[in-house]
Amino acid sequence: MTADEWPSVREIYAEGIATGNATFEKSPPAYGVWDGSHERTCRLVARAGEEVVGWAALSPVSGRCVYAGVAEVSVYVRANARGRGIGLVLLRALVEESEKAGLWTLQAGIFPENTASIDIHGKAGFRIVGVREKLGAMDGRWRDVVLMERRSTVVGVEG
């Protein structure tokens, strides 16, 4: 993913936000804000021809050095491209890139209603570690968040 692709990435992010089941965010941030809050490596886009149809990126979970190998996953697919396996391809590629970057744990917080996202994360080796009940309020309604994680089998493994 490059800065030039941000307009397409932003559109796809906005489509996800509009579903009400992708994130607590209400609108995509400006590029500088997004760029500053995501890992510089492990930023991917999927294309169908010249069109960007999906993206995936990682955000650090903490600034503390002990968590340097832990990141939170974001995966979004354009509305008219959903159901074609693009999210799973992006997520699997993101796992591979994260391991090259030395990350040992990826985590995802997913609304329980977003069953497609829970499904692709499971297919990519994530497991449900719990449900964070009433984690945040959205449009006057408390929302639960399913916490999923994937531990690398090649990074951070003791021999």
Give a verbal description of the structure.
- It is a single chain.
- The chain is α+β, with helices and mostly antiparallel strands and 159 residues long.
- Helices cover 28% and strands 33% of the residues.
- It has helices spanning 6-19, 31-37, 86-100, 115-123; strands at residues 44-48, 51-60, 70-77, 105-110, 127-138, 141-151.
- A six-stranded mixed beta sheet has the order 1-2-3-4-6-5.
- A hairpin with a 2-residue loop joins strand 1 (44-48) and strand 2.
- The mean pLDDT is 94.
How would the blueprint of this fold be written?
Layout: H1 6-19, H2 31-37, E1 44-48, E2 51-60, E3 70-77, H3 86-100, E4 105-110, H4 115-123, E5 127-138, E6 141-151
Parallel strand pairs: 3-4
Antiparallel strand pairs: 1-2, 2-3, 4-6, 5-6
Note the beta-strand portion: 25-35%
Overall, the morphology is globular
User: Pairing-aware structural class of the strands and helices?
Assistant: alpha+beta
Task: Give average pLDDT, whole number.
Answer: 94
What distance lies between the first and last C-alpha atoms, to the nearest angstrom?
Answer: 34 Å
The biggest beta sheet reads: 6 strands, mixed
Count the DSSP helices.
4
What does the radius of gyration come to?
Answer: 15 Å
Helix residue percentage: 25-40%
The ordered string of helix (H) and strand (E) elements is HHEEEHEHEE
Question: Count of DSSP E strands?
Answer: 6
pLDDT < 50 stretches: none
* Strands in their spatial order, largest beta sheet: 1-2-3-4-6-5
